[in-house]
């Protein structure tokens, strides 16, 4: 693949992630001028670069999306839920085209007439208004709201560059070789009682610092693993008729990229589970005396050499007796065995392949796959999944994972032992 095209794909995919996030923010704060300008600039950049590479299908979709966003920016079209849904559908199509383009090297064929007609419908004169401050026209609060807790939201982002993974791997190996050579030299200097020991100690400090710096260069913020979750929650809220607020806390907590990759699917399944099973409908929450809008919170932090991620919802909670009955009905347990099990042991049944408490199968859940994926993937990277729940109050799934991958942790042990 051409180098310029590869760079375009990387940049476009990053832009789409940012665009999707900002469109969701714009749906919540439609009068935010800075957001409006940023969203328009991103889609304009994507469209312009498509023309440079003669990506006709991609350019056509991006242009139709840009036309809608231009009207929103100019205050002639409301940044309503319906309008933003059409924009998000366009982002999905662009993302799918980019995925095929990256894999096959050519733009895939496809018919986008229905989507483009939907986008162009928003630009018709009868839907437009005189330029003014745009406001969301759909009644009611947003179905999904995302809040990101940061220590300093206005902080300056440090400059960064892209580094190929194999270069980091090479640096990592060189740093470890240097550290090991320094250890061996230190042992020799100590046995000879040489004056050079002071310099060897200094060399060891430099080597250790280099090793730690290279190790930190490999780390990525855990927030990269949940950047698609706001969209998932929004779509699930719309599909299930619920109102859900998603809080993201500690996104800057860093982990090894291999660990980050391994936790993406588990986090997706856990959040989907909270939205579909945990959070009740607005009417059910009203009857229970709860706020109509449910809340899902993801929080990450470092603790005792691990990264701890809590996924909490304030929904209906898990009924242990119901889990026992379901296990008996599915002949996973006998009545005697179920009666002898503790609540903690019973709760662990939800991680069994094929086990589900859902009364019906939907396109979201009910097949007993999600929690099995969570347990399997987290266990493979040396992590642990803990579960606590209170009926009527909510559920918390705590995931404890290593900061570094198992392979890197083993290397550190070997270095520490001088082997």
Describe the 3D structure.
The chain is of the alpha/beta class and 419 residues long. It folds into 3 domains: 3-136, Four Helix Bundle (Hemerythrin (Met), subunit A) (Up-down Bundle), CATH 1.20.120; 165-219; 221-402, Histidine kinase-like ATPase, C-terminal domain (Heat Shock Protein 90, 2-Layer Sandwich), CATH 3.30.565. 55% of the residues lie in helices and 12% in strands. It has 15 helices and 8 strands. The chain has helices at residues 3-28, 33-52, 56-73, 81-104, 113-121, 165-192, 197-218, 229-240, 257-278, 282-287, 320-329, 335-340, 343-347, 370-380, 406-417, and strands at residues 144-149, 220-221, 244-249, 254-255, 294-303, 306-313, 384-390, 394-402. The strands form 2 sheets. A 6-stranded mixed sheet has the order 1-3-5-6-8-7. It has a two-stranded antiparallel sheet with strand order 2-4. The relative contact order is 0.08.
How would you briefly describe this protein structure?
The protein has 419 residues and is of the alpha/beta class. It is built from 15 helices and eight strands.
Structural class: alpha/beta
- CATH architecture title of the largest domain: 2-Layer Sandwich
Mind telling me the C-alpha Rg?
Answer: 26 Å
State the CATH topology of the largest domain. Answer: Heat Shock Protein 90
Which geometry do the CA atoms define?
A: flat
SS field, number of helical segments: 15
Tally of distinct domains = 3
Listing every helix as H and every strand as E from the N terminus to the C terminus, the arrangement reads: HHHHHEHHEHEEHHEEHHHHEEH
């Amino acid at each position: 693949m051409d180098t310029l095209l590869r760079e375009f794909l990387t940049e476009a995919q990053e832009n789409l992630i940012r665009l999707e996030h900002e469109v969701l923010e714009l749906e919540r704060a439609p009068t935010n001028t800075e957001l409006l300008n940023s969203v328009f600039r991103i889609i304009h950049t994507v469209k312009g670069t498509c023309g440079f590479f003669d990506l006709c299908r991609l350019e056509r979709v991006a242009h139709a999306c840009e036309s809608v966003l231009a009207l929103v920016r100019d205050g002639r079209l409301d940044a309503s839920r319906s309008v933003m849904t059409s924009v998000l559908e366009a982002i999905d199509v662009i993302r799918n085209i980019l995925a095929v383009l990256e894999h096959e090297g050519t733009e895939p064929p496809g018919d986008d007439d229905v989507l483009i007609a939907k986008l162009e419908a928003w630009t018709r004169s009868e839907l437009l208004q005189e330029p003014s401050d745009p406001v969301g026209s759909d009644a009611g609060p947003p179905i999904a709201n995302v809040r990101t807790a940061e220590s300093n939201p206005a902080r300056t982002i440090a400059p960064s560059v892209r580094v190929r993974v194999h270069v980091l791997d090479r640096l990592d190996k060189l740093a470890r070789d240097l550290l090991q050579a320094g250890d061996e030299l230190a042992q020799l200097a100590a046995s000879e009682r040489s004056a050079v020991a002071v310099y060897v100690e200094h060399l060891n400090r430099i080597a250790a610092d280099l090793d730690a710096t290279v190790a930190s260069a490999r780390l990525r913020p855990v927030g990269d693993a949940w950047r698609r979750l706001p969209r998932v929650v929004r779509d699930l809220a719309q599909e299930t008729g619920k109102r859900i607020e998603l809080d993201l806390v500690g996104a800057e907590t860093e982990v090894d990229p291999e660990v980050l990759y391994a936790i993406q699917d588990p986090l997706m399944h856990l959040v989907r589970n909270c939205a579909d099973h945990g959070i009740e409908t607005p009417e059910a929450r009203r009857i229970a005396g709860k706020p109509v809008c449910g809340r899902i919170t993801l929080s990450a932090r470092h603790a005792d050499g691990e990264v701890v991620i809590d996924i909490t919802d304030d929904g209906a909670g898990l009924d242990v007796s119901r889990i026992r009955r379901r296990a008996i009905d599915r002949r996973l347990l006998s009545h005697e065995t179920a009666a002898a099990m503790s609540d903690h042991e019973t709760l662990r049944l939800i991680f069994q392949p094929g086990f589900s408490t859902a009364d019906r199968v939907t396109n979201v859940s009910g097949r007993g796959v999600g929690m099995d994926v969570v347990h399997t993937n987290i266990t493979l990277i040396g992590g642990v999944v803990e579960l606590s729940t209170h009926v009527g109050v909510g559920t918390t799934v705590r995931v404890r994972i290593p900061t570094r991958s198992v392979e890197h942790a083993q290397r550190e042990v070997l270095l520490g032992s001088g082997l």
